[in-house]
């Protein structure tokens, strides 16, 4: 099976959908299989995006971009 890269928005959406189904009493492995992701990916996304909304995701991205620009300005990070 080919690997697929999910955007942060897609990952957040899939994570929310899986959480809804898991509250209905289904297990993680079968839910992840239905979504086409591994349970390891699910737990990674839950660690990274857990409790985060779309607005917080946008804010996190803006902060990461700002930090990258500052590091480039200081010469610490090479482009």
Classify the secondary structure makeup into a structural class.
mainly alpha
Number of strands: 0
Q: Share of helix among residues?
A: over 70%
Radius of gyration: 16 Å
- Poorly predicted ranges: none
Commentary on this structure:
The chain has 79 residues and is mainly α. Helices cover 71% and strands 0% of the residues. It contains 4 helices and no strands. The protein has helices at residues 8-23, 28-35, 39-49, 54-74. Helix 1 (8-23) packs across helix 2. The longest helix is centred in the last third of the chain and has 21 residues, at 54-74. The mean pLDDT is 84.
In short:
It contains 4 helices and no strands. With 79 residues, it is mainly α.
